[in-house]
Every structure is written in structure tokens, then in C-alpha cells.
Amino acid sequence: MPLGDSLPLSARSARAERADDxxxxxxxxxxxxxxxxxxxxxLVLVAPAVLVIVVFRLWPLLLGVNxxxxxxxxxNGAAVGLDNYAELFADPLFLGALRNVVWLVLLxxxxxxxxxxxxxxxxxxxxxxRFYRSVYFxxxxxxxxxxxxIFNLLLAFDGPLNGLLGLVGLGPVDWLGDSRxxxxxxxxxxxWATFGMALVVFLSGFATLDPALLxxxxxxxxxxxxxxxxxxxxxxxxxxxxxxxxxxxxxxxxMFGLLYVMxxxxxxxxxxxxxxxxxxxxxxxxxxxxxxxxxxVLFLVMLVVGLAQVGFLRRTGKED
Length: 320
Prior knowledge:
It holds the Pfam family BPD_transp_1. It comes from Allocatelliglobosispora scoriae. The protein is mainly alpha-helical. The protein is built from 14 helices and no strands. Helix 2 (9-67) packs across helix 14, helix 4 (92-124) runs antiparallel to helix 11 and helix 13 packs antiparallel against helix 14.
């Protein structure tokens, strides 16, 4: 009789269990190793991007904030506390730049609605959609210097636009020399020059929209405004949030070229924005620490405006 057969049943069961445990141990270690790697893999994959952001974004930002508490000129490098910020908010030019930021926020819905409506026309194939599809991205490939130079000619006091106004019996407008009009003129040119990028984002958002919803709305007899309000806007809520934030950031940080070419901050500082003010203090006044303080304020303004926009749009989307 084999030795194994002579063992009691309980002993044989215990030995079998030990053998199963020995066989299962490598599998558990293998599964444990795989699960550990699966937990670490996402961290390894995002580590290069996080490193780039920390080294080239967050660290320079912290250095700039720290630099804003130092002095310029005779007090170069010396700690001055909040002196730069106190001087900053006592400067009428900077306060005027902040007032212009308020105008940008108020004009932002127009800057978002224009590419949104054009994208809707293209997607719904309304009359004229082929024209929009052909020319919408052309302004985005032009540099701000070229765009500003072109509109300086078009908007000159004796230029073509005022000539057309004269033909219809309207008086000329000093588009770039009137402090009440100049800021709106530059913002309008900026919207024209940059709406192509936002339109591309909207068209990408339309690719995720369920066509069955549009077909159902049409079957129920919904008009175009009703389709836009009740189907398209809720379906593109995430896209609209993204375009709102990126458009606002672009207005605050990408209008320097147009301002420099079209108005140089004039007339009387009426077209100053924080970005242009920072360049004046750094490039012409040679006050880097003071410019760092203005840059810090600009960053905080963008952060507050962006968070407020996202919060407002999310609440609006939930209410709808």
C-alpha cells in the first residue's frame, strides 16, 4: 500500500491544503506585484507633465510673487513689503487697466456667442454655412501686428470705414482716437482675429452631440432658437465652459500686439490692460519688481474671474 494511502484522511487533507497554499503563494505575489504596478503606472505616466508644470510654471510663478516684495532702483533687491502693491493701486493708469478688465468680462459673452453661433450654422447647414466653413479660420493665422496694421488703415479717420459711413449720411467716428470708443474698437478687432480657434473647439463639441436629440426636436416642431436653447446649449455645456475660460484668458494675456500697434495704450491711457501695463513698467520704466507686482495682480484677476465663470456656468447648467 502506498505511504500516502496509509495516512489518515485528516492528514491527507492538511497536506493537500499546504500544497495548494504553496502553489497559490506565487500567484498571490504575482497579483500583488501587478496591482502595485497598476497603482503606480498612472503616477509614472503623469510625472513628466507634472514636472514640466512645476519647473516651468509654478516655480517661476512663486519666484515672481516673491520678487514683487522687493524694491527697484536704489532699493534694488531689498525687501519692501507691500510698498509695490500700495503704489500699484494708487496709479490711475493701473486702475484704468482694471476698469478695462471689467469691460472685457462684460463683453465676453459676445466673444463666445459669435463663434458659437457660426459653429451652430455650420453644424445645422443653414444657408451660408459653406462660406463660414471656408473663411472662419483665416484671421487666426495672421499675426497681431499684421491685423493691427490692416485695421489701422481701415479705421483711420479718413479711412474706408468712415467713407462708407459718409455715404449713408453718418458722420465720421474717431475709432482709435476717442477714449470712449477706442477700447471697444480694439476688443472688436481681437474678437475678429481670434474667434476661429473657439469655433474649432465648438465644432469638436458638436461631434459629441447626439444627432437623435436634434431629430427629435425637429420632429416635435421646435424652431431654431428652441433647438439652440434646449438641445445644443445643454449638450455643449462643458465646451461652453472651456471656451469661456480660454477666451477670457486670451483677452487678458494676448492683446498686447494689437494694443501696441493700434493705440499704444492711448488715447490718454484709455486702452491700457494689465498685460500692457506690465510691459510698460518692465520694458520702458525698468522696474522689474514693480512689474512683478502687477503680474501677480493680473494672475489673481484671471484666477478669480475664471473660477467665477466656471461656477456660474455650472449653476446655470444644473438649473437648466
